[in-house]
Every structure is written in structure tokens, then in C-alpha cells.
């Protein structure tokens, strides 16, 4: 079959990073992202020098943008990883197309997320105090605190996601090394060769590699659920009535999924048109991805309905707090978020829209923005009814906080652009493997 | 080319089936020191060479258990014995509070163990290997399949190995420079 032979020849995928020029659009995007990272550096420096008083946070709104953005980025990372892992474990045909960049997006999002808990400490340079190390004062961290869980959660998230990504990358780096060498680019071949660790495609190595890859994928699964749950437990273990609920981890895990899938969908649309990879990320892949996203949004719709119903059945303190979040000053953010998460992705059921790159990007990023609004409503709105009468003003982010958010968006964009420039965005060995299996009668 | 004796003889095939058939023939003919190379996993060939993924799993489980015990024991010893703090009369040994870190550190150790096991069992990183000197071996990471008989085999003799591999209908047979 000629079409299959076409796809199994992965040379064009490998040749993308070896191109000399990427065009002015790429240069422009890279410049914009780099400017974003400079902004991040400025925001962090300002925070370190002048302190958290720059932020709009105050009693009772002690968690502002830092926690909103942290929960949001972690949600994107988790959902993107979750998606990649399930595809690998089920050996789904879609894995060849979207796996690699879904994992890369997860990694970049974790990097953006990991900044916030450190920065919000007040004295960020002392963040290592949560690590149990033999200090001079012989003081140990309080292991019953969610902060310590969070430390281990984020660290494991970063390490395990990177390992999963890298394990899958080794054989493809070897392909890059050999392609670069075949095209006479000795220095580039050396660069890829070092990271390929001398992979030579021995069938014995492949057997262990497959076992290891699937094993790490299986390990990522519980890791994601517990990392996201730990984030939610930071809220749920407080005595704030609206947060102190067993349903919170479920809410955070499930509503996180459209944000990650939305980012993956937008990236898929951008990469296939931008890098000319529509043969490897084909229309059927886009269909599946879009339908999955729409279905996940329906799941969130169920969760929102359940939230409203159980709120009315709760004890008065919890009921008042939840209703204040849903219909109080931050209510618009909550319902706006719910509309973007649940209703907007339903447009993806229309084939015209899911096949159009601009529409897919708009809907995907729209859903991600919706989850951000939901997190805002949760973090700020959840504190409207505390145990004490509120005397201060409502929480509103200050300019340094917006700068920090913009900076992490720049960081995410820069990491993704560098990834698309340097690394094959489609898993080449999985594609070859898949096609070889398809050819067997 | 050096004057050293060859490190082996390598044959190039166009399909996985041809490579697996050649591997089977080589095993039947009594060759022992050999390896096959492919651009994607060929489980059949790995089985013929006696390589399994299972040990990676056992090492990962072992490492995961070590991580879990270490995490739980650290939390328990530091909170109960070395530095007990009474917070509102709550128990010092708090299983539910110790579990999140225990689970996640166990996963951390297990996945790090998996990658380490993969590298150690595959003897990687090893940036230099005789087969890399074979012209055209780069296609092993694209679309070609190779079978190499190594000089470490007690019955190895370059001419004899070349003749044997020629009989398996490869694209061509090359000596691996020593």
C-alpha cells in the first residue's frame, strides 16, 4: 500500500529540525516568546527585591494569582500527560501523531507551574527548607503539612514526566543523529548522538526499551492523579468552608482535562499546518482528538451540575460559601469559565470547525482560558464566606501579578518553540512500528 | 582500514521478516555471538536472542518498594522520635498524612529505577560501537535491518561467516572493522 509506505518513511519528520531556516514567522514568534521570558525575569526580580506586597493578595485572600496560575498550569500538564500515557498504554493509533508534543507540552507546563509555589513562599530563596535535610538547628519539615506533600508532588511530577518523555525520545534522537550524519552535518550529528546515548537499534535493546517505556507510562498514571489530588488537597484540608469538601480533588482533576486537551488540540492544529506534517497528524487524528475534547467537556458539565445540586444539600455554612462563590462578586468568572469549558468545545462536534486550524486553536485555547477563570473563581471566590466577617476589599490582581502570568506564558511558548525547532515533533519509531504492524495481513 | 582482524560480519536486509528468518537460520547453524538491529521493536527477534523486558519491571518494583519504605520511615522517624511536635493533640504517627508523600516518592524511585535498569541492562550510554563503523549502518534507525555475527564467537572465521550470511539473501554483507 503506497499510502502506508508514505507514512512509514519518517525522513521528512526528521528533516524538519535539520532545516537551516525556519522562516520569519518562527523568528518572530521566538522573539515574542523570548521577550515574555525577559518579562518573567523582570517580574521575578521585582518580587525578590521588593516582596509579595507587590501583589493584590491580603487577608482573607492570601492566595491570589500564584495559586490560580499554579493550579491552572498543573492542570494543563496533567491532562496532556494523562492523554499521552493512555494512548501509549492502549497502543492507540493516535499515539504516533500527538504523543510526543503532548508530552512536551506537559513538560513545559510543569516548568511554568513549578515556579509559582516557590515564588509565593515570601522568601523564595529558602524553598529548600521543605526538604528534609540535616539543618544546623536540627529542625525537620512538618510532614503532616500539605506544603511538604506539594514539594514531593511537584518534584516527582517534573522528574517522572521528563523521564517518560526522554525514554520515548532516545530512539528518535538516534534517527536524528543518523539523518544529520547522512546529510553531512557532523557537529549536529554529534549533538544528537550524545543525547541518543549510543542507541544502535539492537532488537534486544528494543525489547527492554518497550518494557521500560510502557512501565514509566503506567507509573505516570497514578503520579498524575496523586499530584493533582495533592494540589486540590491543599485547598480541601483547610478549614475554609467552600474548599473543605471531598469533591474538590475530583473537580480539579476532571475540569483540568479540557485545558490540557485544548492546548494539545491547538498545538496539533498549529504544528500540522506550520511544519507541513499533515501526513503524520492527519484528519482522522484531529477528529479523534476533537471528539475526545468535546466528550471530556460534557463530563465537566455533569460535574458542574453535581456541584450545584450538592451545594444545596450541604450544611448551611458550606452551602452559603458555595453559593457565594457561584453567585457572588466572582460568579461571572465561574459561569463564564463553565460556559467556555462545557459549551464552547461542543462546537467541535461539527466537522467543519474541527478541521479548520484557526477554529481548533480558538476553541482549544478558549477552553484553557475557561479553566483559568474557573480556578480564579475557586481561589478568590472560595474565600468570600470565611469564619470571620470580611472587612477588606475584594481580591484583584495587580500589574506585577499579570506580568508574572504573561512571563510564564512566554516561558511555555519559548520551550514549545525550541522543542519544535530541535526535536522531531512526531514519534518516528512509533510511526514505523505502527505501520509495520498494519502491513501484516 | 586498519590491519586489525574484523570485529564481525554484518548483513543488511530490507524487511524485518528476512532479518528474523536469517536470525533463525544463524541460530540453527550454531552461531552464538550475534545481534540484530532494527528501526523499531521486533519482539520475535528479541525472543530468539533471549532478551526479555520483564527484568526491567522487577527492578522497577524493587526500587519502588525501597522508595516507599524510605519515604515512610523518614516521615515516621523524624515526626515521632527525632522531632515530635504536638499540633492540637493530633497523633504524631499519622498514617493518612504520611501516605501522599510515600506514594509519590515510591513512584519517583520506580520510574528512575526503570530508566536506570534500561540503561544498565542495555550497557548504555556507549557512544562508540564497532557496528557504527559499517558504511550505511545509519539506516538501521530508518528502514533497514541488520544481522551481525561477532568475532567473539568461538567458531568465528571471517570468510566462513561471510559465506554463511551471503546464503541468507541479504542486500549485501560487510565486514565490521575491528
UniProtKB/TrEMBL annotation, chain A:
This is Polysulfide reductase NrfD. InterPro entries: NrfD-like. One of its GO terms (cellular component) is plasma membrane. The chain crosses the membrane at residues 26-50, 70-89, 101-119, 147-167, 215-236, 248-268, 288-305, 332-352, 359-384, 404-423. Signal peptide: none annotated. It holds the Pfam family NrfD. Belongs to the NrfD family. Keywords: Cell membrane, Membrane, Transmembrane, Transmembrane helix. It comes from the Bacteria. The keyword Manganese does not apply. It is found in: Cell membrane. It is a multi-pass membrane protein.
Automatic annotation (TrEMBL), chain B:
The keyword Transmembrane applies. It holds the Pfam family ActD. It comes from the Bacteria. The chain crosses the membrane at residues 56-78, 98-120. Keywords: Membrane, Transmembrane, Transmembrane helix. This is DUF3341 domain-containing protein. It comes from Roseicella aerolata.
Amino acid at each position: 500500500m503506497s499510502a502506508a509506505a508514505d507514512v512509514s518513511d519518517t525522513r521528512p519528520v526528521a528533516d524538519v529540525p535539520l532545516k537551516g531556516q525556519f522562516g520569519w514567522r518562527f523568528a518572530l514568534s521566538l522573539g515574542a516568546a523570548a521577550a515574555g521570558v525577559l518579562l518573567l525575569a523582570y517580574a521575578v526580580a521585582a518580587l525578590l527585591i521588593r516582596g509579595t506586597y507587590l501583589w493584590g493578595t491580603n487577608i482573607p485572600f492570601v492566595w491570589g494569582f500564584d495559586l490560580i496560575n499554579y493550579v491552572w498550569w498543573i492542570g494543563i500538564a496533567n491532562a496532556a500527560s494523562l492523554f499521552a500515557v493512555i494512548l501509549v498504554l492502549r497502543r492507540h493509533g493516535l499515539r504516533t501523531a500527538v504523543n510526543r508534543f503532548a508530552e512536551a507540552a506537559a513538560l513545559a507546563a510543569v516548568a511554568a507551574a513549578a515556579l509559582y509555589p516557590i515564588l509565593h513562599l515570601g522568601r523564595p530563596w529558602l524553598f529548600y527548607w521543605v526538604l528534609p535535610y540535616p539543618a544546623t538547628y536540627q529542625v525537620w519539615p512538618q510532614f503532616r503539612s500539605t506544603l511538604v506533600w506539594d514539594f514531593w508532588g511537584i518534584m516527582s511530577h517534573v522528574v517522572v514526566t521528563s523521564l517518560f518523555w526522554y525514554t520515548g525520545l532516545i530512539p528518535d534522537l538516534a534517527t536524528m543523529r543518523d539523518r544529520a550524519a547522512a546529510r553531512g552535518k557532523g557537529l549536529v550529528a554529534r549533538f544528537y548522538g550524545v543525547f541518543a546515548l549510543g542507541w544502535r537499534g539492537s532488537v534486544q535493546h528494543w525489547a527492554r526499551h518497550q518494557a521500560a517505556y510502557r512501565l514509566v507510562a503506567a507509573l505516570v498514571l497514578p503520579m498524575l492523579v496523586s499530584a493533582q489530588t495533592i494540589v486540590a488537597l491543599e485547598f480541601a484540608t483547610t478549614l475554609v468552608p467552600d474548599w473543605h469538601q471531598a469533591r474538590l480533588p475530583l473537580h480539579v482533576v476532571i475540569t483540568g482535562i479540557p485545558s490540557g486537551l485544548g492546548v494539545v488540540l491547538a498545538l496539533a492544529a498549529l504544528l500540522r499546518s506550520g511544519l507541513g506534517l499533515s501526513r503524520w497528524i492527519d484528519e482522522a487524528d484531529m477528529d479523534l482528538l476533537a471528539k475526545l475534547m468535546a466528550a471530556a467537556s460534557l463530563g465537566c458539565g455533569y460535574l458542574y451540575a453535581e456541584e450545584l445540586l450538592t451545594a444545596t444539600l450541604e450544611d448551611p455554612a458550606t452551602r452559603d460559601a458555595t453559593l457565594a462563590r457561584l453567585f457572588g462578586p466572582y460568579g461571572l468568572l465561574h459561569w463564564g469559565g463553565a460556559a467556555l469549558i462545557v459549551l464552547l468545545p461542543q462546537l467541535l462536534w461539527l466537522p467543519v470547525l474541527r478541521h479548520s486550524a484557526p477554529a481548533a486553536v480558538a476553541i482549544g485555547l478558549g477552553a484553557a482560558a475557561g479553566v483559568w477563570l474557573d480556578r480564579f473563581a475557586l481561589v478568590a471566590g472560595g474565600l468570600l464566606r470565611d469564619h470571620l466577617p470580611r472587612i477588606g476589599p475584594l481580591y484583584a490582581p495587580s500589574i506585577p501579578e499579570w506580568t508574572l502570568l504573561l512571563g510564564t506564558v512566554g516561558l511555555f511558548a519559548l520551550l514549545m518553540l525550541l522543542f519544535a525547532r530541535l526535536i522531531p515533533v512526531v514519534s518516528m519509531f512509533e510511526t514505523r512500528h505502527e505501520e509495520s504492524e498494519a502491513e501484516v495481513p | 582500514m586498519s590491519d586489525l582482524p574484523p570485529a564481525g560480519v554484518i548483513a543488511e536486509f530490507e524487511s524485518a521478516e528476512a532479518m528474523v528468518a536469517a536470525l533463525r537460520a544463524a541460530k540453527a547453524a550454531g552461531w552464538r555471538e550475534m545481534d540484530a538491529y532494527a528501526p523499531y521493536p521486533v519482539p520475535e527477534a528479541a525472543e530468539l536472542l533471549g532478551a526479555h523486558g520483564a527484568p526491567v519491571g522487577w527492578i522497577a518494583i524493587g526500587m519502588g518498594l525501597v522508595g516507599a519504605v524510605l519515604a515512610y520511615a523518614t516521615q515516621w522517624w523524624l515526626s515521632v522520635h527525632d522531632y515530635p511536635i504536638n499540633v492540637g493533640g493530633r497523633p504524631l504517627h499519622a498514617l493518612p498524612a504520611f501516605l501522599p508523600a510515600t506514594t509519590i516518592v515510591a513512584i519517583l524511585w520506580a520510574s528512575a529505577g526503570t530508566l536506570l535498569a534500561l540503561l544498565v541492562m542495555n550497557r548504555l550510554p556507549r557512544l562508540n560501537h564497532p557496528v557504527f563503523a559499517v558504511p550505511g549502518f545509519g539506516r538501521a534507525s530508518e528502514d533497514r535491518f541488520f544481522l551481525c555475527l561477532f568475532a567473539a564467537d568461538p567458531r568465528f572465521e571471517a570468510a566462513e561467516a561471510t559465506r554463511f550470511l551471503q546464503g541468507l539473501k541479504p542486500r549485501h554483507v560487510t565486514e565490521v572493522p575491528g
